[in-house]
Design goal:
There is one protein chain. It contains four helices and five strands. The chain is α+β, with helices and mostly antiparallel strands. It has two domains: 1-91, no CATH class; 94-143.
């Protein structure tokens, strides 16, 4: 018998996963909602949702990422979003065509953010190199 070994998937479909506990529910330093597709094993620290056809799961994920969940999170030492509280989070459900358009816009914005982040990181590397050259005297500044 192995410990911490998963030999098969629990799911093999498109699902929305929402983090259940941890400080990230409040700090939002990383995403709390993910859409997955295909074979997956999900631990007990995530809520698992299927679409019943009324919503696009990417839309729900984007919507959850844009909102504070603080009113539905309980616990002080370990913040927790239990299933009952998660079910009470009010969410607008526009027509599927509108949800799709919103997802397209957000995906485009996410692409732009990734591109601009990569540019900034590249500039940070250049800046760091230039500062190193200046501080070591490799490059002199004339006055």
């Amino acid at each position: 018998m192995a410990i911490d070994w998963v030999s098969e998937s629990l799911f093999n479909e498109t699902l929305l996963l929402v983090g259940e506990d941890g400080a990230n529910l409040l700090t939002r330093s990383s995403p709390i909602a993910f859409v997955i597709s295909g074979p997956a094993w999900v631990n007990n620290h995530a809520h698992v949702y299927r679409s019943k056809g009324r919503v696009i799961l990417d839309f729900v994920a984007h919507w959850l990422e844009s909102r504070s969940l603080q009113p539905w999170v309980t616990g002080s030492a370990q913040p927790k979003l239990n299933g009952k509280a998660a079910a009470r989070i009010p969410m607008p459900v526009p027509p599927l065509s509108e949800q799709s358009k919103i997802c397209d816009v957000v995906a485009g914005l996410d692409g732009n953010i990734k591109c601009e982040t990569a540019k900034r990181e590249a500039l940070d590397v250049v800046k760091s190199g230039l500062l190193q050259d200046l501080l070591t005297g490799k490059v002199r500044v004339s006055t």
